[in-house]
Amino acid sequence: MRMSYTARCAGAWVVAGAIAGILVPGSASAQTVRLGLITSITGPAAGTGADQQRAATLAVEELNAAGGVTVGGAKRKVELVIGDDQTSREGAVSGVTRLIVEDKVNVVFGGLGSAFGMAALPLIQERGIPYIPTPSTPLFTRTKDMGPDPTKSMVFHYQATGLMYGAGTADFIAEGLRPVFAPGKPIRVAWLYQDSPFGAEYVRGYTDRIKEKNLPLETVATERFKVGETDYRAQLTKIKALAPQVLVPMGFRGETVAMVQQAVLDVGIDPKKVAIGPVCACVDDPLYYKDLGKIGSHTTILSVYSTYATPKNPAFARWPDFRASFQKRYGVLPGVLGVSAYDAVHIAARAIERAGSLDSQRVIAALAALPVDKYVMPIRSGKTLFDPKYREVDFYLIAQQFFWDEKLKELRPRVVWPHDVADAKYVHP
């Protein structure tokens, strides 16, 4: 499945195969800058993939409305080409192959699942194409022994890594939940996480942070599930028997919704005794607030973006305007992975302009030589800068607590951590 957007066909929406609402252009033009988004257009993660597609299209429209990208002194329009990873490793390899070999894109970016992006990585490395992945595994730019890998020099990781999220999860539990559920004592924590690079790196970051800071957290369970699994009651039953005070359900949006609902409704885990969350940043989109329902009240999430909340800090100042532009264009709000795809388009465009060329090596060198001012994702320095060792970005993480809004019949968040940007305190159910 390949789809793309150019200024020449703006507004020409057609049906491609069995999928409606995908914009398809005419033939590729040598005068365009071609950016290849790899994401899930079909499969279980298609809803989140659509969010990335919309956000990337908005960024392309903004660039083209301003005249496009300057390459070697001439303005060129930007073309978005979409490769469907089909929410699978095999689909990711196929989708990236088409983007690189057939569509001849200048930059590849995006992605949802760490396992899918890692499956496609060898081909990207072989071809030397600049790559801006947005899943969370740090293995995009780090070897298994956590050292830098020069063979991955074309990869620039634009997402808080699983190690960052895992460390932030440990910090939040220690600082935000322990004083409520286990004051003065170690707090008992259970994990139910996806058996993938995504899930494993969250747990590793969490475990490493406990050791690093000697945090008073006792991990009583690390249960796993396979990607796409829908019944978690066996694992949750084991967890309940171990009497944890915190349950961390770590998966994609649909998996997380099912885990939380089954934990409370089917297995009988009491939210008054067990803090549920923080869940994965990847679920923070409008559908999660609707799908989880009232059962999600008082649960928490650790993220780099919020669908609704805006913390009191300059790092988050662009969120309201971006949400307004996105909602005006599509009638819905963006999620966190859509935001990262939006930013990646602008980052790629600026790097190409700085390179003054579409030559891969020159674009890679330009990406390495950034910074530029940050876009929407909250970066601590205020500048988009990939560190020279791991090609990662230092994002600002926030924890939100969800509350049921009876009028809207949906959940809404309040920022509860870190305390210097919080607008509310954590509320015990």
What does this entry look like structurally?
The structure is a single chain. The protein contains eleven helices and 18 strands. The protein is α/β, with parallel strands linked by helices. It folds into two domains: 2-160 and 317-384, Rossmann fold (3-Layer(aba) Sandwich), CATH 3.40.50.2300; 162-303 and 397-417, Response regulator (Rossmann fold), CATH 3.40.50. The chain has a five-stranded mixed sheet. A four-stranded parallel sheet has the order 11-10-12-13, sandwiched between helices. It has a three-stranded antiparallel sheet with strand order 14-17-18. Strand 17 and strand 18 (410-417) form a beta hairpin. The longest helix has 20 residues, at 46-65. It is globular and about 65 Å long. 53% of the residues are buried. Residues 1-29 have low confidence and may be disordered.
Which strand order spans the largest sheet, edge to edge or round the barrel?
1-7-4-8-9
Overall spatial form: globular
Kindly report how far apart the N and C termini lie.
46 Å
User: What share of residues is helical?
Assistant: 25-40%
> What is the count of structural domains?
2
Please give the CATH architecture of the largest domain: 3-Layer(aba) Sandwich
Mean pLDDT: 90
Number of helical regions: 11
Q: Given this structure, which CATH class of the largest domain is correct?
A: Alpha Beta
CATH superfamily of the largest domain: Response regulator
* SSE ordering: EEEEHEEEHEHEHEHEHEHEHEHHHEEEE
Rg over CA atoms, rounded to whole Å, is 21 Å
Taking pLDDT < 50 over at least 5 consecutive residues as the criterion, the unreliable ranges are 1-29
Structural class of the helices, strands and pairings? alpha/beta
Strand content bin: 15-25%
